[in-house]
Each structure stands twice: as structure tokens, then as C-alpha cells.
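Proteins fold reproducibly. Consider a sample protein:
=====
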Amino acid sequence: MIGLTLYDYLLFPLYFFIVYRIFKKLRLKYKNDRKLYLYFTWGFRIKIVIIIVYTLLSHYVIRGDAVDLYYGEGKHFAQIIKDNPARIDLLFTRGGKTTDNLASEEEKGYLAMESNYMVVKVAIILCFLTFSCFSIVNLIIGFIAFLASWRLYLFFLEQYPKLHREFAIACMGIPTVLFWSAGISKDTICVALLAFLTYSMYNLVVKKEKRLFNSLVVIIAVYMIYQIKAYIAVSYFPFFIFFLILYKIKETKTPIMRFVLKFSLPLFLASLIIFLTYYGEDLMKDFSSEKVLENISSQQKEFTLQAQRTEGETAFFSLGEFDGTPIGLMKMAPKAVIATFFRPFIWESHNLIMLLSSLEAIVMLLFTLGLFIRPKGFVLFFSTYFTNSLVFYCITFSLLFALFVGISSFNFGSLVRYKIPCIPFFVCGLLVIKSRMTSEQKNNNVAPV
């Protein structure tokens, strides 16, 4: 069986020691800041525990793509290259007939797609570094995901330093994000890339630090995100660039530069509209009615087999039929967004992992609704959304991302994994809104002198 072997149990302590030494060296940077030192330390400790739990559950209980597809094929292709070093070209080959023909018999068909094979290529490299040990592959990719979440935390912290505790929880402490970014998978790689991209692009454009390094990170992140899950790039870039332009306008003191930046904003929006008009069909081709119906059919067969293996338990859900039109998309939008952020509901859970996900979804729902029922909550929510560029960028990206995820997921097991890249952004946006509401309430309660 693919997964843990005796070598995992023998070598994991050694690799953990190496990772721990790297962590300690990185932590020295925050030795003079007690709060950051504490958050970095506990974030690392919690992540390591989650990586171990995830690895054990993946091998002994839940199995799935992380073990059988991404790690399994990574190990398989790494062995092909070891046996014939001339096949090192497989690391630079796009997913297609060549890679699919070399795949294990059980995974035929999956590696014909570059989105899957890109993750396998990451797994191949990690297998070379870890003697193909599943636990150590997860340790390395999980540690990288932790470092990415820390970078995202630093980005939000710089915008609102007073929310240091709240942002730490949002970026490094949400259970679903922690768990599903603890092993080799599309979701782990995408959530890490998005965090690195955000931090590096902000440093590149706003702070103008380490331009060569940050430019390299941005290029790699953009390329890999687009190859693995193109809809993340489509839903993220317009709003993040919009935020960066507004940020530059706000901090620029030179009138001429402010004018140029203000002029660039409508120019950017016009260019975006033109781009989507001409190339939107290609970008959204996976969401055409024909393609969606094809995906529905293939995924339903897979989920049916999974349900049979779990004695009939199922986690299917349906939002109705999507006709592939903009109007049809708008009709499905509310249900898709609600499903992404607030489902599975408690009565839709069929196992312990799904139950924990539903409890988290309830907390998210109550937190969101709690903002609206505060005094002037509705007014303050939308006034902050439309006037605060950070909130607008985080919430709008999250809503669009949630729409894509909601209409393309038909199983709660997939849904809870697919949604993790947007969850920290959504929660951080809500936290900024909550902060403004609290500030307004305090100001209104101050007695006049």
C-alpha cells in the first residue's frame, strides 16, 4: 500500500530536527518583538501537530488524492527517473499523453491534465529530497505552507497592527485551513502560493524591497497558480492590483504622481474589461455548460464509488443545474457562496472530520451575521466595504472565489478543501469591518465634555 513505511518512522525525527533548526533560525528575527515571537512559535508548534495528524489520517483513514495520486505518482515518477536519469525531462514535461502513459494503472487519465501533473512534479522533487517518505513530504510541504501563512499574517499586520491577535488566528489558526494545507495537494500548494504572492507583490510594489527575489517569487507563484487552478488567478488579481493602486495613491504626496496614479485606475479597469471581453470565454471555458455537465458526470461517478466504500454514507449536495449563461451564474451565486462559506450544515455531516468542518462553518456564519445585527451594522458593513480598499479587495476576491468553488463542487469533502485559499482573506476582511464597528461604538458611547 502506498503511504507510510518503516523508513517514515525512522527518518521523520531526523528531518524534523532539520526543519526545527530552520524554524529556530528564522525565529531569531523576532526575538525583540514578544508578540511576533510568540505567534511564530505557537503557529509552528500547532502546524507540526496538524501535519502529523493529517499524515496518519491520510494513510490509515481518509486516503484520497494526497496519498494515492500526488504522492503515489510522485514516488512512481521519481523511481522512473532514478532508473533512467535521462528521463529527468519529465520534470519539464507538461501533463498529457506522455505522462499519462507512464502513470500507474490506477491513476490513468489523471496525469493527462497539467493541473494534476504540476502537483506531481512538486512531489517528484520532494521525493528526491526525502527518500520518497510520505510523512517527510508532508512535513516539508506543510512547513512551507506555515511559512506562507506567516507571510500573509505579516501583510495584514502591517495594514492594521492593532489586530495582531485576530489576524494571527485568521491566517494561522483556522482548523480547516490548517488541516487541509498540511500535506501534498493542490490546495496546500495554492494556498501557500497565494500567500507568498501577496506578501512578495506588496513588498515589490509598495515597499520596494528585495526586488529581484520578490519578482522571482511573483513570477513562479503566478505561473503555478494559473497552471493548477486558473480561476484563483482570475478571481484574485484584479482586486489585489486594485488595492495596490489605491494604496499607492494614498501614500503618494507628489500631486503629479497622485494624478498619474488616479488616471491609471480607470485605465486599469477599462483594460480589465476589454481583456475579459476578448479572452473571458477562454478563461472561463471550464465553466461552460458542456464542460460543467461533463465534470458533474465524472465527479458523481467518483463520489458514488467513494460512497459505496464508506457503506453508503455520502456527502453529495446540489445547487441545481447551471445553464452556462451569465444569468444562470447570477442565479446560482447566492447558493454557491453560502455553500462555500457556511456549509456543510450540522445535519449534513456524516463523519467526524465533516462534523468539525460544519462546526467551523457555524462559527463563521454566526460571526458574519453578528456583524449585521450590531447597532448600525448593515450601514457600517457596506460603508466600510465600499470605502476601505483592503476590505473591498479581501471580501470581493473571497466572494468571487466562493462562487467558482460553489458551482464546481458537488461533494462536501471536496468543498472544504477547495475553499481554503480564500478563507483567511474573507475572515481578515470581516475582522477589519468588526474593528471599525467597535471603534464607532466606542466613539458614540463617549460622553460629551
